[in-house]
Write a structure and sequence with these properties.
Layout: E1 17-21, E2 27-31, E3 40-44, E4 47-50, H1 51-56, E5 70-72, E6 77-80, E7 92-93, E8 99-104, E9 107-112, E10 123-124, H2 136-142, E11 173-174, E12 177-178
Parallel strand pairs: 7-10
Antiparallel strand pairs: 1-2, 3-9, 4-6, 5-6, 8-9, 11-12
Length: about 180
């Protein structure tokens, strides 16, 4: 099954953004002009690849610094921004982002979560989904966040949810056992 849609010409440049050195990490994508809240800024483009093989190419534990340009648009399809992608692939993660990533009909778009000033770096929350066996400490080690946000969670990955106490359980109790 081939999902690849290779373009013969380079992707069009967006008049709204420019890529340059980022204080967050590497290169970043910055607003070339003021952008209104809710504006659709850019489409995340690249080669469409099957999700499983694309994920297999990137060994999280072996990689010293996690750096991929994969964007999942469905359980079966990823967009590989490294292959034929545009400026959107350089949008960095932030735990307090100014953009949303929106998936519609197998396509990914970046939209302004709030008004963005000219020169401001664009960011969205990557919210990586990972191996469920990873602890929050593992996620901070494997996928460290460098966003610098006041409420930074320390990782690009979706945090592990704490288990909720069932209604009626007291502090220090687990189901069926008493914890001392």
């Amino acid at each position: 099954m081939t999902l690849s849609k290779k373009s013969k010409s380079p992707p069009e440049r967006s008049p709204l953004v420019v890529v340059r050195r980022s204080p967050i990490q590497g290169r970043g994508t910055f607003a070339r002009v003021p952008i209104a809240r809710g504006a659709r800024i850019i489409e995340y483009t690249g080669e469409r690849v099957p999700a499983t093989p694309a994920d297999d190419e990137h060994d999280d534990e072996a990689t010293r610094r996690h750096h991929t340009f994969l964007f999942s648009v469905s359980a079966k399809v990823d967009i590989d921004g490294m292959r034929g992608g545009n400026e959107s692939r350089f949008i960095n993660h932030s735990c307090q982002p100014n953009c949303w990533a929106i998936v519609e009909r197998g396509r990914a778009f970046i939209e302004a979560k709030r008004a963005i000033e000219k020169g401001e770096e664009l960011s969205y929350d990557y919210w990586y989904t990972t191996d469920r066996s990873y602890t929050n400490a593992d996620l901070r080690r494997i996928y460290p966040c460098r966003c610098g946000a006041e409420r930074c969670r320390g990782t690009l990955a979706a945090p592990r949810r704490k288990r909720r106490k069932k209604q009626g359980q007291k502090q220090g109790q687990t189901r069926g056992k008493r914890v001392k």
